[in-house]
Design brief:
This protein is α/β, with parallel strands linked by helices and 446 residues long. It has helices at 29-37, 84-90, 117-124, 151-159, 174-178, 181-198, 208-214, 246-260, 292-299, 324-334, 342-347, 372-382, 413-426, and strands at 44-46, 66-68, 93-95, 107-111, 131-134, 163-164, 167-170, 202-206, 272-278, 304-308, 348-353, 356-360, 367-370, 387-389, 394-401, 404-409, 429-433. The protein has 13 helices and 17 strands. Helix 2 links the parallel strand 2 and strand 3 (93-95).
Length: 446
């Protein structure tokens, strides 16, 4: 399998909207400099909050739906031989029955401020979404002082039965929260207090990829790549770092147990912790991969694992976003332990992408992520013929613009239906990155 890309993709020209794939493992240089200058500073990205003057809540997005008595299944739209004309005519029409669920296991939906449509879609389709995770965009902020947030939006979602679990990205240098007992306790208390004070139902934590980038998860016999280069205090890490990922796993477990000790204000359940994990890329797991033993160690202390089974291809290796065989390999690998059970399968929120990619073919490499709006624009302008890839089980099309050939991979009802069926066969849950980037009638298949 090709190596995982670490860039944050932006849309190619000409489409003008704001598509982004999930942030990948590499930390930005700005964030790293900040952490190096103040190694004991606890720095987080706390999704869904508005820090006055620094992290504005997205502007209101007025979303009106075109409804029809028939679902996409009854309209016979879930099929291989889909046409550009059909997508253009039908993508904005959804079933008027927005409460019917075709997928019965939990569904986690990410919402981002750079696609503010997702905030309205979360409310309109909350009956289909058990967990909603608001995300913020790349700011490194210390959680202190007073914060403002959209309490009405959170309350409305919770009143409709959805759990609101903001996505938190841990950006601090690993030594701060993994080896310093007082700082670890402070970080955990900070996150628990934020949930309790704001009335959230828990958090989605992303840290594994960043720990891997720092070398925390490397073979213990190898010298740490970054340790000893920051301050004299951290020059002798060889002995302190011998347990590989045990310190990392212990932090996640302690955070989960702390959240579980607090009851949610909106429900009778305890606060939840869902941990973001990368999908295995190779046949053999490396030391930096999240594997079945890690899954088993954390299962009793967590409520789920958001598995990033998307972003398989990139500008250097154009192709499908989430080949079905890769999804199957990821699930087979993670659930290979003899102690795996159906309850463990349900804890995995299988990643489904609502974004696509427009790759350049004629100039060697290039291109990037696109949203549904971009996809519709391209269909209307070029009227391409959509092809079904029997290997990846995804639709794609080729078009030329000013002599440059492009390949576009974007989800269709059929490709989504195939992946939902796979999730049902495995008994997993779903996670969607992210609902502001999809076409309206995608929600009919959920």
């Amino acid at each position: 399998m090709p190596p995982r890309r670490r860039d944050r993709r932006r849309p190619p020209s000409p489409p003008p909207s704001h598509a982004r794939a999930p942030p990948s493992a590499g930390a930005s240089s700005t964030g790293v400099r900040l952490i190096f200058m103040a190694p004991l500073l606890l720095v987080f990205v706390l999704a869904g909050l508005r820090f006055s003057g620094r992290l504005p809540w997205p502007p209101p997005h007025t979303q009106s739906l075109q409804t029809t008595p028939l679902s996409v299944y009854q309209r016979v739209l879930v099929k291989l031989d889909v046409s550009a004309h059909e997508i253009l005519a039908e993508h904005a029409r959804v079933s008027e029955n927005r409460s019917r669920r075709h997928f019965q296991n939990p569904v986690l939906a990410y919402v981002t401020p750079w696609n503010s449509k997702g905030y309205d879609m979360a409310k309109l389709f909350s009956a289909k979404l058990t967990h909603i995770s608001p995300v913020c965009d790349g700011n490194r902020l210390v959680l202190d002082g007073e914060h403002n947030f959209d309490a009405a939006w959170v309350s409305e979602l919770q009143s409709n039965g959805s759990l609101v679990v903001p996505r938190v990205v841990l950006e601090a240098f690993p030594a701060v929260v993994l080896l310093e007992k007082k700082q670890k306790a402070k970080a955990i208390d900070l996150l628990v207090s934020e949930c309790r004070d704001k009335g959230y139902d828990g958090i989605v934590l992303e840290s594994w990829s960043r720990w891997a980038a720092y070398g925390v998860l490397n073979d213990p016999d190898l010298p740490p790549s970054l340790c000893g280069k920051i301050e004299n205090k951290y020059t002798n890490f060889d002995e302190r770092w011998t347990q590989r990922s045990e310190s990392a796993l212990q932090f996640v477990k302690q955070l989960g147990e702390a959240l579980h000790s607090i009851s949610s204000k909106s429900s009778s359940h305890h606060l939840k912790l869902i941990f973001v994990i990368p999908a295995p890329r190779m046949q053999e797991l490396s030391n930096q991969d999240f594997g079945p033993d890690d899954l088993l160690q954390l299962a009793d202390s967590l409520d789920g694992f958001s598995l990033m089974t998307y972003d398989f291809s990139g500008p250097q290796n154009p192709g499908p976003s989430a080949p079905l065989k890769w999804i199957q390999h990821s699930l087979t690998t993670l659930l290979s332990a003899k102690d795996s059970s159906s309850s463990l399968s349900r804890m995995i929120f299988l990643g489904i992408n609502f974004y696509g990619n427009d790759f350049l073919l004629s100039r060697g490499s290039g291109g990037g992520a696109i949203t549904g709006r971009d996809f519709v624009h391209l269909l209307g302008k070029y009227r391409p013929s959509l092809q079904w890839d029997d290997k990846s089980l995804e639709h794609y099309f080729i078009y030329s613009d000013e002599g440059v050939r492009h390949a576009v991979f974007y989800p269709t009802l059929m490709s989504l239906s195939v992946r939902l069926n796979e999730a049902e066969n495995w008994g997993t849950s779903l996670s969607i990155w992210e609902i502001g980037q999809g076409l309206d009638y995608f929600f009919d298949v959920l």
